[in-house]
Amino acid sequence: MDSPLRPDRRRLVLGATALSAAAIAPLLLPKAALATPQAAAELLQKLVKGTPRQGRVRLQAPDIADNGSSVALAVAVESPMTAQDYVKAIHVVADGNPSPGVISVRLGPENGRAEISVRIRLAGSERVIAVAEMSDGSLWTASREVTVTVGGCGAG
After folding, report:
1. Single pTM value for the model
2. Nearest to 34 by CA among 95, 102, 83
3. Which of 27, 35, 77, 132 lies 20 to 30 angstroms, CA to CA, from 54?
4. pLDDT tens digit string along 51-72?
5. Residue 51 carries which DSSP code?
6. Burial of 37 (0-12, 13-18, 19+ CB in 10 A)
7. DSSP letters along 95-140, please?
8. Which distant-in-sequence residues (6+ apart) come within 8 Å of 29 by Cβ?
9. What are the tens digits of pLDDT across the range 90-136?
10. Residues 6+ away with beta carbon under 8 Å from 10
């Protein structure tokens, strides 16, 4: 099909389109910088107040993920999930992603069980940390190293 624009106008329109695409491309590309363990710890301090203790949290993730674009992750917290004793939130961070925050889920006694399962993206081999915030204010944690053979967040 012939273009309704004259050849000289068509080149002008195509050139302007290419320049526009080149100008906005850097805004659309993922950040290459990776988080650090310090950035992950700082984010956790913003999300929860206090120092989490080991225990009550079970974090399941593969030891080795063939592809960081889709890594299965499950977190379960030991809790009766009653009106008096329940999990308020589960936070997951990864200390090597471009942004360390992976997911935060608010829960309540009506959930029945304190369990989540998701697929996450990991930039590369890194530590994944889960923190459970309880209704009594206590914090519980678990972490796991995941080795990624092909990165999923713009890094390898």
Report:
1. 0.73
2. 95
3. 35
4. 999 999 999 999 999 988 899 9
5. -
6. middle
7. TTSSSSEEEEEE--GGGSS-EEEEEE--SSSEEEEEEEEETTS-EE
8. 154
9. 999 998 888 889 999 999 999 999 999 999 999 889 999 999 999 99
10. 3
